Each structure stands twice: as C-alpha cells, then as structure tokens.
Amino acid sequence: MPTKSIYILAIESSCDDTSAAILLNNKVLSNVVANQKIHAAYGGVVPELASRAHQQNIVPVVQQALAQAGVDKSQLHAIAFTKGPGLMGSLLVGTSFAKSLAIALQIPLIGVNHMQAHVMAHFINDADQHMPEFPFLCLTISGGHTQILKITNPQSFKIIGETIDDAVGEAFDKSAKLMGLPYPGGPLIDKYAKLGNKHAFTFTAPKTENPLNFSFSGLKTAILYFLQKEQKKNPNFIEQNRNDICASIQHTIVQILFKRLELAVKKTGIKRMAIAGGVSANSAIRATLKNYENTLGWQTYIPKFEYTTDNAAMIGIVGYYKFLNQEFDLENTIATSRLDINM
Description:
Layout: E1 7-12, E2 18-24, E3 27-34, H1 47-69, E4 78-84, H2 88-105, E5 109-113, H3 114-120, E6 136-141, E7 146-153, E8 156-162, H4 168-178, H5 186-193, H6 217-233, H7 237-268, E9 272-276, H8 283-295, E10 299-301, H9 312-324
Parallel strand pairs: 1-4, 4-5, 6-9, 9-10
Antiparallel strand pairs: 1-2, 2-3, 6-7, 7-8
Helix pairs in contact: 1-2, 3-9, 4-5, 4-6, 4-7, 5-7, 7-8
C-alpha cells in the first residue's frame, strides 16, 4: 500500500445512471447514484433521454459526492471516468466533464473500462466483502454483457466465454415484458420466482458451438411461443401462473450460467469464482454460487449489492490501481461505445 493518501474522483455515465464517487486509496468515502426513472414508461433505456438526464445530473452528483466525503476538489489527485463500453451519448457527458475538470485542476485523467470495473469492484476495501486471490474466474452478467473472464492480475483479463447474441440481463427483462411486467423486469422475476415452483415448466437451453459461450435469443423465443400457446387455451394463464413461470424461467437461466461455469473450472483448474455486474444481484444466482462453494469446494466471491449495479465506486477502484501504475490518459482521449476487455 502507498504511504501517500490518494484522493480520486470517479465518474460513471455508461447507461442511465449518473454516479460520482470519492475514493481515498482503495476505500470508498462516498458513492452517489442518480437514477433515471423516465425510461420505465418506454420499457427500456432511451439513449437520447439518458444523455439529457446525465447533463442535468452530473454537476449536482459530483458536488454531493465531494460534500459527503468531506473532500475539496483541490485535494483530488486524479479523475477516473468510464471510457466505454456503453451508450455513446451517455459516455460523452461523463467524458467531457471529466476532461474539463482534470484540465482545470491540472491533475491526471484516467479512462476506465466499464466491464473491468465491475470485476474490480471486488477489490474495494470494504469490511463486508473479501477480495479474491489471483488468478480467479469471474462471471460478468448485466443487461448488455455475459462473459466468463480469467483474471490473472489487475491488468490481465481474458474472455474465455461470452454470449453470441443477447445478454442475460436482456433475457430477464424481455421475458418479464412478455408477461406484462414493467421495466426493469429482471428484479421482478426474481421476486415472483421466490413464490413459485421452478420445475413447473420446462424450457430448452440453447446450445452453442463453443461450450463456454452463451445464447439467450432462442430462449426468449421459446418463452414467447410458450406464453402465446398457453394464453390461447387460457387468457388468464400468465396472471394465474406468474410465480411458477418466473421461477421456471429463472431456474433455466441459472442452469445455463452454471453449466458453463462448471466447465470453465474444469478447463482452467481454477476454483476461485466471482460474479459481477447488475444481474449478480439476483438471489438465485447468489444462492447457487454459494451452494457450489459447499458442494464443489469453490472459493466464491459475491459483491455487495451497492457495487453490483452501475456505480462510480467501481470506476474509482480501477482508477486507483491505474494511478499506482501511472497509467494516465491524454486530454484528447475519446469515449467509445465498444471497448474490449481482453488485456
């Protein structure tokens, strides 16, 4: 650990949450998130509306983060920001603000890969979570990503499995939409699944050429046809069977995920397994991973709920490690909607 106290302002604006955090070395002093409720009316994130909301939120969110941490902007040593991947309009707001403030304060600028940040959230110094030892595997699951990563050190990430079409978060949300549930539907499926029978209905898991890859588009189609067929026989089928449908869908998705994880452990020989990303908040995924710790001898790492969804604290922890290595971005750096995590 460095003897110097390093203060980093982190900014996250990859999708529809505007977030700012202040870190003192690897410890979070504040982590402020402004959610955008407007997208619920449209059943999904509207990029143009998201970027406008970021413009309205970013200044007050940063001011609040500094105030909560009791830190003045003159004390900052660097500004970390989400460089990508994400929605281009949203990323531009955070990038432009970070660049402008870094120039004004004459401090380093640190661009961060959003997906790397989800994984590195495990290394935030927090009494409620323990840090993985290297090397370890990580299942990153969100609305836009589904990947199995092999992490050798904070600067070495390798994708060994990923979705070939839709992400698992989209599968949850679209399935919920088919049942008439509001956006975001993933947490609602988790809620109703706790009250249902996971073996009530069977859905076939799609196959992939690479056994470590995922596919969810076929599952969504199967759920659509199943619901249409049952509603023809009984128009009230969804309402009368909502808990069982949710439980069955969630069980199928969990089985798809963990079948790949079991194979990844066999192929790599690494039994340290972490989860990251917004969907890692799902209770069935957390419970299944913990069960594997008991039955298969895995060492498992589950992040705190506040570090699973998009937040600036996870951006800040990557910024901290990059600061230690003097990995800074130039003032002409640009945001990118696609950013490879292999490094």
